[in-house]
Amino acid sequence: MTQNRKRVLSGIQPSGNLTIGNYLGAIKQWAENQHRFDAYYCVVDLHAITVEHDPAQLREKTREVAAIYLACGIDPTLSTIFVQSHVKAHSELAWLLTCQTPLGWLYRMTQFKDKSAKQEAMSVSTGLLSYPVLMAADILLYQAEVVPVGDDQRQHLEFTRDLAQRMNHLYGEDTFTIPEVMIPPAGARIMGLDNPTAKMSKSEAAQLHAVYILDEPDTIRKKIMKSVTDSGKEIQFSDDPSRAGVNNLLTIYQAFTSQSAEAIEAHFSTARGYGDLKKAVAEAVIESLQPIQQRYRELTEDVRNIDDLLAQGAEKARAIANRTLAIVQERMGFLSA
Ligand code: TRP
Fold it and tell me: Are 12 and 148 members of one domain?
């Protein structure tokens, strides 16, 4: 059994508070799929320094993201959880790949264009430009066959595939596995509470934008009660952009309660207005997050628990990553040490 499980790799940046969007769109599915896959889940700390960062915060968030993976049910006996920077091969392979990456491939990445548009052109870090190369290294080092990511990462996956093909052409077709992207189902895509036409993001500063996985019940109630809806009163799923707020609340409700759309619409057909919907959504979110938050508190009572697990994860990851790196180094002509 174990031998036939497909290799999977994914990661989240420790660059803010993880949201219910990260949970429903990524971590929950990773946990559900872990029996099917030989999975590697990393905390991509090297990616988090491509924009301005605070060292103390990076350290704290790196542990926090790892503890959230565990609290959400990623089982370290089934999946490997590790911190990207603990496996030095990521940085090393990224350099080797950088030297095979045409600049044009990087300039056309929409994430680079979006993020760099917010800064002065010449002061944007080179790391922000080469971000996709590091991401390709993360994936290719493990010969991952499947990469579960949000729709916004599709272009980075295409880039990874192109780069892997280029390397295979130059250094042998069996150098890298060409990875497939795995996009979560539509019901797992959660939008911002303050702006339901944009994806919920952990790096958005606005107070009422996102519910964080570790938010207190009262904070969750407040954020959801203040979420943007419309002036109607119909509580139905809809892909009409003007009804995106209500649709998002229903999507959140459905994801947390696992009921059918019909059952949910029937349930709310007698509601007096959006206030009733919001109350019900808030309680469903609070109730679902409660066991995760409880487990998070237990796990983090002693940070050594997390650090020990991460050390074990890094050791397992290193064994695989170093093997791939050695093959690439040899094929590119480096003298072995
Ligand atoms: N760029 C990804 C994101 O922002 C994070 C990431 C980095 C990643 N390395 C990865 C995702 C490797 C999947 C595989 O969501």
Answer: yes
Three-state DSSP at 301 gives: coil
The protein residue whose alpha carbon is closest to atom 13 in ligand 1 is 10
Residue 192 lies in a domain: no
Of all protein residues, the one whose alpha carbon is nearest to atom 7 of ligand 1 is 135
CB 321 within 8 A of CB 142: yes
Whats the size of the chain, residue-wise? 337
Distance 243 CA to ligand 1 centre (A): 31
Pocket test for ligand 1, best of 111, 135, 143 (most atoms within 8 A of CB): 135
Catalytic member of 6, 199, 222, 279: 199
Quick check: is 115 catalytic?
A: yes
Judge if 249 and 156 occupy the same domain.
no
Name the 3-class secondary structure at 335.
coil
* Domain identity same for 230 and 271: yes
Structural domain includes residue 337:
no
Residues 6 or more apart whose Cβ sits within 8 Å of residue 307: 63
- pLDDT at position 118 is 85
The single residue of 28, 202, 223, 278 carrying the catalytic annotation is: 202
Quote the CA–CA distance of 328 and 223 in Å, as a whole number.
Answer: 49
Count of domains observed in the chain: 2
pLDDT tens string 105-121? 999 999 999 988 888 88
**Catalytic residue check, 222:** no
pTM: 0.95
Please, which residues have CB within 8 angstroms of residue 115's CB and are 6 or more apart in sequence?
Answer: 51, 124, 128
Structural domain boundaries enclosing 54: 2-183+302-332
Q: Are 253 and 310 part of one and the same domain?
A: no
My answer on whether 92 and 229 are in the same domain is: no
